[in-house]
Design a protein that fits this description.
alpha/beta; Rossmann fold; 2 domains; seven-stranded parallel β-sheet
Length: 270
């Protein structure tokens, strides 16, 4: 069983002569050589079920903070400022929310949008016939044509590096609010900042940064490049330190999800 700090490469897999599985406590598998594990016949388990609910809640919470200036309003009141008109919010109701990726996390987010009276559409390049009661499946071009809000829930792989970039933003017909609780490297930060400056991006909420190390455990924020320094001071930006899947419940949930999959491998009863 591994977290994100250990590189599970060909050398490590070959060293495990009796290795029967790799269980990733969490979701991302950038640090695991999946192709070589498959060649060796070694199954790789992940546990997205453990944190999908907290990611869905966190993404929605960040969106509400962003569209209602809650972070700034809280800071101002604590500094003895009482400003109402500059903090006038925007409702989710009546908006079209585009969800990129419809696995565990995307589905959890779409489910939590029910009751906000928004239209939810989703694009997932890995799936077919994936629309459901909570979201309608559309093409990427249709999502870009219709979305007022875009929430990113796609995994990292080389093909998804900087998936959200200047071209993606430019192809959106409307100015958008953007939320990313997936992986930092699927988004080009410099292009995002340019979108904020031009008004193509109305606001952004990021739980992940493309500057993170593989382990996600530490980050010297003061030394990061200029695009991040812009995000830190912008009023229409909400940031959190890669904690969307980091709840008390998910800590237990990841363990239970992996225990079930390992038990199933050996036909054991939990």
């Amino acid at each position: 069983m591994v977290r994100s700090r250990l590189q599970v490469d060909q050398e490590l897999l070959d060293a495990g002569g009796r290795l029967q599985f790799v269980a990733r406590y969490g979701v991302g598998v950038e640090h695991i050589d999946l192709e070589y594990a498959a060649q060796r016949g070694i199954p790789v388990f992940t546990s997205p079920e453990g944190s999908r609910d907290t990611v869905g809640e966190h993404a929605l919470g960040m969106l509400l903070m962003l569209m209602n200036y809650l972070s700034r309003a809280d800071r101002e009141v604590k500094n003895n400022q009482w400003r109402r008109e500059p903090n006038r919010g925007t409702e989710i109701k009546g908006k079209t929310v585009g969800v990129l990726g419809y696995g565990n996390m995307g589905k959890a987010f779409a489910k939590r949008l029910q009751g906000f009276e928004a239209e939810v559409i989703v694009y997932d390049k890995y799936k077919e016939d994936y629309g459901d009661a909570n979201a309608s499946a559309v093409s990427l071009s249709e999502l870009q044509a219709r979305a007022d809000i875009v929430s990113v829930h796609i995994p990292y792989e080389p093909a998804n590096h900087h998936f959200v970039d200047a071209d993606f933003i430019g192809n959106c017909a409307k100015p958008i609010y953007l939320v990313n609780t997936a992986r930092g490297t699927v988004l080009n930060t410099a292009d995002l900042v340019e979108g904020l400056k031009t008004g193509k991006v109305l606001g952004v909420a990021l739980d992940v940064l493309e500057y993170e190390e593989m382990s996600f455990t530490k980050l010297d924020l003061a030394s990061l490049p200029e695009p991040f320094q812009y995000l830190k001071q912008a009023d229409n930006v909400v940031l959190s330190p890669h904690i969307a899947g980091w709840s008390h419940e998910s800590k237990k949930g990841h363990a239970l999800a992996l225990a079930q999959k390992i038990s199933d491998l050996y036909d054991l009863k939990m």
